Amino acid sequence: MSKLIINGGKKLKGSLEVQTAKNSAVAILCASVMVQGKVLLKDVPQIEEVNRILELLSSIGVKIKKQGSTIELDSSEKLNLENIDKVACEKIRSSLLLLGALAKREKEYKLYKSGGCKLGERTVRPHLYALQKLGVEVISKFRYYEVKNKSLTGQEIVMYESGDTTTENAVMTAILAHGKTILKMASSNYMVQDLCYFLQTAGAKIKGIGTTTLEIEGINKLKSVKKYEIMPDPIVAMTFLSVAITTKSNLTIKNCPLDFLELELVKLEMMGQKFKIKNKRKSKNGRFNIVDIEIFPSVLSALPDKIYGRPFPGLNIDNLPFFVPILTQAKGRSLVHDWIYENRAVYYLELQKLGANITLLDPHRVWVEGLTKFLPNEIMCPASLRPAVNVLIGMLAAKGRSVLRNTYMIDRGYENLYEKLNKAGADIEVVSD
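Structure (tokenized):
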């Protein structure tokens, strides 16, 4: 484990470049086992979540060659699910994506129950509802899922929940099913789109990408992928926007996927935040609109209405937490409604330890009273990725010396975060604890 020693209260300057998307990468890495051949992925984020997925895939027999952010995977040989890395499987919830990725390839196997952020009850029922209709039987045991895959047949399915990984699992299963599948009320979020574009590169027949209705014509086999580049991460982009605004810095956030930040920018504009959108272009994979966003120190007011996340095209559920440190710097009182998770809002109270005026109304809602002066402190990282980064943001804004312990939760999702912040003028020291 490591800890951070942060000398906060400094104005940052220059630019911060957004890495590629964690949630896209883990889904596409899992989907690579559907291709019984080679897959070459470029711009894969070098983060702990990806490391766990690679350990998982390697343990079942996928051959992996890694050189920096370029990864070649070869799943042409027979897989051995009996050798699955239990530790890696249990650390990451994204291991659930193997349910869809292996639906055609493996008849029976065990998948050990997963971890990830501690966010209360996170049911797998939405996954099972869609998968069972397509021919995947999953029986929940104490520590693992017993999976039995039958002949896959396309269906018309109304998704029980418009979840991202739920939709990804259904898409992967339908790709190699016999006949046509129509998924209604599907997630159209960024990682689902990125996965679908990757699968198209491998020969999948998918219509409606970017909408909530996906039409998939099943095929017998996917072809090798000579190159696919992962899209930039809108959640990291929002993280850096929150850093810039909370520390009242003039910073340019580079490589932002605009389509997945537009509502966030409207909310910020309503608060009085000044920014400039520059350098519009396409992502390296040619599928997404990319911009640079320059943030200017601004006088902020609380939002007149509550702020909440929802499935895309709403305000991204994982971007919602990053409004909390911003709202501490806005005059007035704001209501944040984090309805999707049973207890993520509880983690927002960690900012109280840095002087924030936050009141918990129930497990889903908090009042944030603005114009807080952040104060330094020593804190253990919360057991949830985005709230953990919120604590780091508060420490960057707090004048004086803070200590943040056990940063693995942050390292799961961010690549060279502390180095990037230091280059922009932060003072963060990483120390083995």
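The domain at 2-19+232-432 is CATH 3.65.10.10 (UDP-n-acetylglucosamine1-carboxyvinyl-transferase; Chain). The longest strand covers residues 274-282.
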